[in-house]
């Protein structure tokens, strides 16, 4: 069972105060890039894995999606998502993506599957990717963002400042050691699953996807002006991938 | 013009003493992985970009390749390659891959293009990849290895040992700052061109390739027993990619 950190009171309170929680998609600096990978949703059926407060689900409907099925493990987040939504074509559903069955018998259900900063929590990702391949229609698109493997790898994921030179660097180690990482971000003991970039790419290729977009996101100058996230130039924080079902 | 470090006497002497120079492909720990990406070469026409001493060219012919065109910037290396070769179907050619024209007018010339640890030296890589796409036959395969972007990125590409904990890590910085890196490896002032993983992938996608294999090489236990290259588990050193012309 995936750790449900979003139902930890301290984590939830702090997460709720982030720009991306208050402003929605516009508060997520990587959103313009993710959005550029999403096809015209007019009339399409969409699945959102880890929907959080439902910002993407509502945006998808606002751009013409026919329906959105939005899955989330956290009851806290689902509850707020439902409060923010008045749309019978968005179906929110509580579910643990590490143990879910996306469909009992059906395949070819969705045109687009979207997942924002969720898949790096999952131990059973290979199984989920295989299911996504099954429920996507042929030619359907999977768009997802994750924490970048460079970001999740280190035993101690904090910038180091060299005492002599003052130079700052990201202390990369353990890159090839996949598995559990425990970090303190908003709350103590947040559990993630580190995988290499190669593992993500090969999961997709082996499941029968073709990679169509691949981005180690960083802000353009205009976005940097807004987010002032200079250290992301030293090492990537997000990996964005788009893939099409063959 | 690409720096021709292999014609630097000190570099050449030290490079010539490496396992991969003396033992050929079997002295290159990443070779078994690269080899697994190469199709059956029986009757195929092959282009080798940065052929060094010609180990790959001779291997390709020994497995049935119809012909190999092998390009190398270093006269030192070409001279030894010619000494080691007795095969009129291997054509060695001196050339700077940053300024080469692979063909004046023809396309669809080769079934397989191979390049080992060469492309990270090139400033004009986008132009070369586009040419490779042109000279490959439809369905043809490009297999290459490069120094991994995690390895080329840092301003100071040397492991750091934390004075207090003794922990060793790779001091990653400047990842998004593409361009020239100058390192001391075998000789002083070796020039490389750092690019992000995303840049390599997107160069291929935009040129009309489909990614088919993607590997951040590290040794399996048996290979580790032989090469004892334990630090490569902390951060990848090589990136291996196979791509097919659409």
Would you kindly provide a written description of the structure presented here, covering whatever features stand out?
Two copies of one chain form a homodimer. Chain A is an alpha/beta fold. In chain A, 28% of the residues lie in helices and 29% in strands. The first copy, chain A, is built from nine helices and eleven strands. Chain A has helices spanning 9-16, 19-22, 31-37, 55-62, 75-84, 125-135, 149-152, 197-207, 221-227, and strands spanning 45-49, 67-72, 90-94, 110-116, 136-147, 160-161, 168-172, 179-185, 187-194, 209-215, 238-245. In chain A, the strands form three sheets. The first copy, chain A, has a seven-stranded mixed beta sheet, with helices on both faces. The radius of gyration of chain A is 18 Å and the shape is globular. The model of chain A has no long low-confidence stretch (mean pLDDT 94). The A-B interface holds A 150, 154-156, 160, 162-163, 167-177, 196-198, 201-202, 205, 210-216, 218, 232-236 and B 150, 154-156, 160, 162-163, 167-177, 196-198, 201-202, 205, 210-216, 218, 232-236. Strand 7 of chain A pairs antiparallel with strand 7 (168-172) of chain B.
